[in-house]
Structures are given as C-alpha cells and as structure tokens.
Amino acid sequence: MEDKRIRLVFFSAWGSDYKQFEFSLKSFLAILAGGAGALVVVFIFLLFGSKLLFQEIYTEYQGAKQNVLRRQFEQWQDRALELGRRYERLHGLPSGLIFTEVDKRNGGENAEALTGRGGAFVDEDDNILPTLQAGSQPDANLYSSHSLQQASTVDFNTLTPTDLINHLESRISATRQTHQTLFENFETRRQQLAHIPSVKPILSGRITDFFGKRVDPFVRRLRHHRGLDVAAPYGTTVYAPAAGTIELAKTTYRRGRGYGRVVIIDHGHGMKTLYGHLSKVNVKQGQRIQRWEIVGLVGDTGRATGPHLHYEVWADGKARDPVEFIINE
Fold first, then answer.
1. Number of folded domains that form the chain
2. Are 281 and 251 in contact (CB under 8 A)?
3. Cβ proximity of 303 and 257 under 8 Å
4. What are the per-10-residue average pLDDT scores of the chain (329 residues)?
5. Is the pTM here over 0.85, yes or no?
6. Which of 310, 235, 327 lies closest to 273 in space, CA to CA?
7. The domain spanning residue 280 has which CATH number?
8. Are residues 205 and 313 in the same domain?
9. How far apart, in whole angstroms, are the C-alpha atoms of residue 286 and residue 306?
C-alpha cells in the first residue's frame, strides 16, 4: 500500500516566494498530537497559576478585611469596658434614703385592756381648729403620689453593634446626669422629708378609733373622727414624728371638755400634727423640735374615757388620715 504523504505550502504575502514541507501521514498526526498535548500542558499550567494567583489576592483581601474587623472589635471592646466602668460607678451610688426603725417597747398593761377613747368632735372650748387650718400652702410633692413617666423603648435586635454601644453610652450619660441632679438636691429633699410625720408618735399601744366615721363614745352618735385614738398605759412617752416648731402647748383645760392638755406642731410645708389628752406637756410654744424628741406623756385629760393619745395630721388646712403618713410599721 502506498504511503500517504501530506505537503504543507506557505506563501509569502509580499512576494512570490513560497516554502513547502512534506510529511508522511503518521508524522503529521504525531506533530498534531504533540502540539495538542503541549497546548493542554500550557492550559493546565495557566489554570493552576491563575488559581494560585487568585488565592493569594483573595487571602490578602480577607486578611485586610479581618484587620479592619479586628480593629473595629477592639474599639467596641474598649467602649464596652468603659461602659462597664461607668455603670459600676453609677451602680455604686446610694439608691435612696434609709429610715431607721426604732425597737418597740411593750407597755406594762395588757394590750387588750387598753380601751381609752376621746370625743372632742366639735372642738368644744379649745378653739384649736383655726390654728390647724391656718398656715402656708403644703409642698404637694412631699406627700402625694406621682405617676412615673415611662421611658421610650428601643428594639436592640435592629441595632448594629456600633449603634447599640452609642445608644448605651447616651443612656448612661443621661442616667449619670439625672443622678447628678438628684444628688445635688438630696440634702434639700432630705431636710424636707424630715418634716413629714412618717413615724408613730408612740411605740406601743392599741388603736381604739380610726380616722373617719365612728360612733362617739359619749353621745353614741355617728360622727367624723379627725384622727387616731391610740390607747396606751398612762404616762407612755409621746414622740414627735417629724421636725417642726411647737405652735401650741396648752396645759390648762376643763375637765371632761375638749382635747385636755394638747400640743400642736407646725412641721412646715403645710403640715401640722396634734397630740391630745396628754397627762404632761414636755414642750413650750415656739420651741424647735426634732423627730423622736419627747412631746409629752399619754393621759386622759379633757373629754376621754381612759388614757390614750388622740393624734391628728393636717395638710393644707385639712385633716388627713395619719395612717397614710406612717412608714415605721
């Protein structure tokens, strides 16, 4: 069989010269296969080279991105630590006033046997009502309740870490400013609170009549009672429930009439307290008095069925239930 051959002729584009090459079919196929293999090798080399180059570029990009994130995280961490320190400083501040409770002392008589009550329901001959109703306007902030304003709420799930830290920083700054304002006025408020009758005027006893409607023990009719009747052993100590000035210290009285020996304390801010049916008055008119100082002793002077303290609290010229103000239960 005749061997097939392949002739390749190359012509010049600028002249009539030409070149020709002649190969056997087997040689030509071998040349084609070698060229194709070489192309494959070059392609694979380029492919892996580009992949390595891409990986190197991607690694550098990720490294730079991680460095940015690391710096940002370090900033968040520093700000979070500072927030923690600021919170600890705020948390370490006193949170409120502390009221000291005085130990109670039991009277010498059986509590069930204490039945003293009073009946000075129309002021009779004491002429005390104008004294209680007169005075300056009260500071309503000291003894009336207030509704707390609700703080605006924030959905923390929608905040980025930076926005969250910014929000917390602003909240802490606002809280610190509020605390600063509160403590700037702390002494003034504490002095005002010292004038609120917030403790029991006697340490032991039995309440025989509450504030409000009750059956008068003398006339047996339903009448309004302007205070508390607290039965206690004769001579039990009566204390001032708040600081103030003695406005009335009456030692003379008519038997079976009115409050008997009676004391009125003006606590300021429109607050006054009355102590009736005392056996002894330990204060004088115009005297300054502090909380827990002795006002007098329990007795049965005036219109009374037995030894007890008649205790009234007046605010802005109106009688109030003393129980509303007592906190040393």
1. 2
2. yes
3. yes
4. 69 72 75 85 84 80 80 76 67 39 42 59 57 57 42 60 73 74 70 82 88 80 87 94 93 86 92 94 94 94 91 91 81
5. no
6. 310
7. 2.70.70.10
8. yes
9. 30
